[in-house]
Amino acid sequence: MNYVICRFVVASLTFFLIFGSVAHADVISTGSALQMELRQEQVDRVDTFLARDDVRDALIARGVNPADATLRIGALTDQELQRLAVRIDNLPAGGTGVIEVVGIVAIVLLVLELLGVTDVFTRI
Predict the structure, then answer these.
(1) How far apart are CA 119 and CA 72, in angstroms?
(2) Structural domain of residue 108, as residue ranges?
């Protein structure tokens, strides 16, 4: 009886060692952690800007679905996202310049479309 249990345990352990998943953990550097945090802040800033009613209306007027634009923010490179966030921060409080930012977002979406990264404009 003990022999059968022993064989079952050995077979089970062998199975899990061969087919079990292995987890790997690495140390994240402080620079990487800060960069990820900065990127998330920039994404949040752009998302907040795109959530404004006047920006949504401008996107819709140009044929861009605001939901698609919000989803595509994640596809931007760090440099593109940083430029867009800086542009948003430099806008006057009165809303002048909204068209410029919407234009930049539309251009970025168009470039991503031409590169085959997205399919925003194929549904139109």
Answers:
(1) 10
(2) 30-123
The domain total for the chain is 1
The residues near 73 (Cβ < 8 Å, ≥ 6 apart) are 43, 46, 47, 50, 81
pLDDT in tens, 5-22: 888 888 887 877 777 666
Which 8-state DSSP code applies to residue 28?
Answer: P
CB 105 within 8 A of CB 64: yes
Q: Which residue has the tokens 């490179």?
A: 77
Whether residue 61 is contained in a domain is answered as yes
Distance CA 92, CA 109 (A): 24
In a domain, 11, yes or no: no
Give 78-93 pLDDT, tens digit per residue: 888 888 888 877 766 5
How many CA atoms does the CB half-sphere of 97 hold within 13 Å? Answer: 11
pLDDT digits 0-9 by tens, 105-116: 777 777 777 777
Secondary-structure percent of the chain, ordered helix, strand, coil, rounded to 5 = 75, 0, 25
